[in-house]
Write a structure and sequence with these properties.
Length: 238
């Protein structure tokens, strides 16, 4: 199969034979974006401008802290806090306007400050950087599925997907496929998801049985790591 630069992470993830190749792709992408953000790039004006504006979600802020570049994180957060203070001082001057009052209710017109706070608390520089590339990874999966028989074989013989990424593929499929090709893909996708979810469910059941004294002398089969694999299959948090 002819390898192109944008196909490399997709093929590597499916070659890894994990419980969800898309989880593997996203985790690798997330690590790369964290390393980029905490590397020398945090000194660049354009990067600092974006991190100051968008801030970070709780998950990625914790990962940045674990990166060990404490000075870099302090500088990034100092700039973000400067931006927050400056913006809040500007937008909070108008206060909140109350209109259309009745005996029991007051109609509240949202303030400029509330609009700003809703935007900044829902944004994350890392999430934004990840999502753009992740969307291209999803598009690449469908491109390879349509054009490469070898990839279609990899897809068919994979261990399926977690629930979240099963949903992502299901919802994206009509954008990239149509007609019989779309129907065949959805059929394969459903089969992959259900067969492998049942496989891990059965391993988890045997893991539970091993805590019963009646099964103490029975072999573990494939159940020793069933719990983390079940967690990956059912985890809906990116």
């Amino acid at each position: 199969m002819k390898e192109k630069l944008y196909t490399i992470p997709v093929n590597e993830a499916f070659d890894a034979d994990g419980e969800c190749p898309i989880c593997s792709m996203r985790k690798s992408l997330e690590t790369n974006v964290i390393d980029f953000t905490m590397g020398p790039s945090y000194m660049e004006d354009d990067v600092r401008g974006e991190t100051s504006k968008l801030g970070f979600c709780e998950k990625h802020l914790d990962q940045m802290y674990q990166n060990q570049n404490r000075l870099g994180l302090a500088l990034i957060l100092k700039s973000h806090m400067d931006k927050l203070i400056q913006d809040i001082e500007k937008v909070s001057k108008g206060g909140i306007k109350l209109t259309g009052s009745s005996l029991f209710k007051k109609k509240v017109d949202k303030s400029e400050a509330l609009d700003y706070l809703e935007q900044v608390t829902d944004s994350c520089y890392i999430c934004d950087k990840i999502q753009g590339t992740f969307n291209r990874y999803i598009a690449t999966i469908f491109h390879l599925y349509r054009t490469e028989e070898q990839f279609r074989d990899k897809f068919r013989t994979s261990k399926g997907f977690c629930t979240l990424h099963y949903k992502d593929l299901y919802s994206a499929a009509p954008k990239y496929l149509n007609g019989e090709e779309l129907n065949e893909f959805i059929k394969q996708l459903n089969q992959l998801y259900l067969e492998n979810m049942k496989r891990v469910r059965d391993d988890l059941e045997w893991f539970i049985n091993k805590f019963d004294y009646r099964y103490a002398n029975e072999p573990w089969k494939n159940a020793k790591d069933a719990l983390p694999r079940a967690m990956q299959k059912t985890d809906n948090i990116l």
